[in-house]
Amino acid sequence: MNPAALGANTQTLVLIAFLIFVGASLLLCVMVGPEGDEVADFYTANRTLTPLQNALALSGDYISAATLLGTTGIVAMSGYDGFTLAVSTVLALGVLLLIARPLRNAGRYTLGDVLAMRAGGAAPRIAAAVVTLAVSLPFLVVQLSGAGSATAQVLGLTGPGAQQVCTALIGVLMICYTVLGGMRGTSLVQIVKVVLTFAAVVAVALSVLSHFHWSIDALLSAASAGSGQGAAYLHPGLQLGTTASGRLNFIGLQLTVVLGAACMPHMIMRVNASPTGSAARRSTRYAIGMVGAFCLLVAVIGLGAAALVGDRMIGAVNPNGQGALLLLAGVLQGGTGTTAGSALFTAVACSVFVTVLAVVAGITLAAAAALAHDLHAHAVRKGRLSQAGEVRAVRWSVLAVGTLGIVLAIAAQGYNVQFMSSLAVSIAASAVLPALLYSLFWSRYNRTGLLWTVYGGLLCAVGLQAFSPTVSGSAFALFPHADFAWFPLQTPGLVSVPAAFALGWAGSVRGRRKAAAEPDFAAVQERVLLGAGAE
Amino acid sequence: MPAAHLPPDSFRSRHRAAGHPGAPLDPPAAWAARDRAAGELATLNRATARLGRGFAVANAAGFAVMVLLACTGGGLLGTEVFGRVTLGIVLGVAQAVGLLWTAARFDRRSTRTCDPLAETLGEGLHHSQYGDPRQAPHGNPREDRYGAAPRYQDPWDQRPVTGR
Question: N or C: which terminus of chain B carries fewer CB neighbours within 10 A?
């Protein structure tokens, strides 16, 4: 079933559901949004969320369209490799669990607040803002671009113009949520999103299992047959091949996801919204349970899509398999011609819509906070900015980041920009995680090491990705007709992550030789372990 | 002055070194208190690192085994163990369940062992800086944060809310 061929009734139902959700969530954002002009209120909702509420919001920030649509599609098309990716997605939260308490103790609002703990001056703040934008913008573009296409398809609108209009509308909504709601509003939208999305995936997974009479064997057999791969479907190597290069690609992808997926700036900001370090750790633990259950359901749905829709149809709609969830929802419960089928499809379409909307709002808030807090308030104004001035600045930054994201997403229509998700995760794994680990735990880390880690990791990740097969030299590349790909791996993490750690060490050694003044690690340790010195 | 009375270099926090309002302590007593606090901080650091290491090693080992088996194990992960359910699926689910279990264990143990120690140390730090606890800011946590600037020496939180 092609979503473009949905019945008029279903499309009307989906449109009404979209409008109800948009209206209700905007109203909620206005009602719960920040009342005054305090930066803590705008960035962290004054840290009033309970661990469970923050865990729901953390799960909401983490479950992006890449997880909901991308992982489902990879499971559907590549079987075991997609299942491994889902497990790695959960494992990534384990990395966040390890650093959640020290991160919250050390941090205030943004990544820049943590990095500035180890070195004074504007440079660490600027580095933090640069890397935050470098992670956030590609992620924003790929989510907005995908959301525009999916929404246009679901609403039965065809052509690039319709996709661009949908992208722009979603982008405008994202800006409204963030400007009006701040962290309070986006948290509420995240919580609503998690509940809705969870309900939708549970309904789809149960429908799949009931279709196969609750027999996992029958589901696996049908999925293997539907994929057209037979027994190979449940063996490793279908997605990236079984050659040496394919194996390295597999290791690199899994490693990058585990190290980077949970260390993105919007996740760091979410951890900083916890009232205490212990609450941050508890929230992350709860989030592991929620995301774990979610990924298990996603795996079942992916298998169901392979079994009931088939590899050929999924690949025809989108070569990356991103249409698998919507295609599956369209054939369950008797299809969209029946009331139950139509209701299920509407629920899934709404969950996709709300997933994208909530995630892009969180990403925009993190990017805008980096601009307003790290760059404007600290690096440029040296802290001489009132709280009201900073809140005004962050609202203008939301507008700037949102507009840039919309323009780039519209410009990206027609190109294969899926690699930008893995690029964002690679930058987070290569530049953010090493800088965080060194800043929080290594006594000899200093300003030079910090700058080398952040800029070195960033340049390595971006440079290697630019010369990878995802940008040129292959049929699925951004520029399929050009070929300047000399780096064989699709994900640069296998090289860029160790390089960033090595650069951090080398920079710290060199920085120690150049300047005798060592950072006072006792004070840093006091702050990381006890929260002394942070808000 | 005997060298034994010197404050330890390893615990020369700038927050404390700068001095704060509050009841002044007798210098040797203050150094002894700092020694004790430094020891307790080191204990907390070790306990936190031990728990974190256990959690990280268990999950990293599982991840490494799975990735290596997928790359070098031939068809091992594709071996069917229960009907069509393969060894790879069983091990993947076991890995996720293991993560959940170790995460719960890590959190519970941290709550039991590290958090009380951190709380005690944090309170001690607070009192040592304000001397008389009655002088310390308390009450509304938000006011406490904004009123805690002398302790944290950061003028950032004292910014006016309005104006430019």
Answer: N
Among candidate residues A475, A422, A353, A370, the one with its CA nearest the CA of residue A142:
A422
Is A309 within 8 Å of A326 (Cβ atoms)? no
Nearest CA distance, A415 vs chain B (angstrom)? 32
Instruction: Determine whether the interchain pair A282/B99 forms a contact, defined as Cβ–Cβ distance below 8 Å.
Output: no
Radius of gyration of chain B (CA): 25
Q: Which CATH number fits domain A3-530: 3.60.21.10, 1.10.3720.10, 1.10.10.10, 1.20.1730.10?
A: 1.20.1730.10
Residue numbers in A near B140 (CB within 8 A): none
Q: How close does chain B come to A438, measured CA to CA in Å?
A: 14
Of all residues in chain A, the percent with pLDDT exceeding 70 is 97
Q: Answer yes or no: do A254 and B13 touch at CB < 8 A.
A: no
* Distant-in-sequence, close-in-space partners of A84: CB < 8 Å, separation ≥ 6: A236, A254, B66, B70, B88, B92
Exposed/middle/buried for residue A40 (C-beta within 10 Å: 0-12, 13-18, 19+) = buried
CB-facing half-sphere around the CA of A90: CA atoms within 13 A: 32
SS3 letters for chain B?
CCHHHCCCHHHCCHHHHCCCCCCCCCHHHHHHHHHHHHHHHHHHHHHHHHHHHHHHHHHHHHHHHHHHHHHHCCCHHHCEEECCEEHHHHHHHHHHHHHHHHHHHHHHHHHHHHHHHHHHHHHHHHHHHHCCHHHCCCCCHHHHHHHCHHHHCCHHHHCCCCCC
Chain B 105-164, CB below 8 Å of chain A: which residues? 106-107, 110-111, 115, 118, 121-122, 125, 141-142, 145, 151-157, 159-164
* Neighbour-count burial of A251, counting CB atoms closer than 10 A to its CB (0-12 exposed, 13-18 middle, 19+ buried): buried
Q: What is the pLDDT of residues A511-531, one digit of tens each?
A: 876 655 555 788 888 888 888
Would you call A479 helix, strand, or coil by DSSP?
A: strand
Q: What integer best gives the mean pLDDT of chain A?
A: 90
Question: How confident is the model over A4-35, as pLDDT tens digits?
Answer: 456 777 778 888 888 888 888 888 888 888 87
Contact A270, A370 (CB under 8 A): no
A453 interface with B at CB cutoff 8 Å: no
B19 token code pair: 């001095």
Distance (Å) from the C-alpha of residue B147 to the closest C-alpha of chain A?
A: 10
Extents of the domains making up chain A: 3-530
CB-based contact A254 B44, cutoff 8 Å: no
Residue A104 contacts B where some CB pair is shorter than 8 Å? no
Tell me the β-bridge partners of A288: none
Closest partner CB to A292 (pick from B75, B100, B156): B100
Q: Which residue of A has its CA nearest to B71?
A: A247
- The shortest CB-CB distance from A288 to any of B14, B99, B164 is to B99
Could you report the per-residue pLDDT of A221-264, keeping only the tens digit for each? 999 999 888 888 999 888 888 888 889 999 999 999 999 999 99
Contact A387 B159 (CB under 8 A): yes
A135 close to A432: Cβ distance less than 8 angstroms: yes
Chain B environment of A87 (Cβ under 8 Å): 66, 92, 95-96
Q: Is the pLDDT reported for residue A330 higher than 60?
A: yes
Six-digit token string for B100: 């959940």
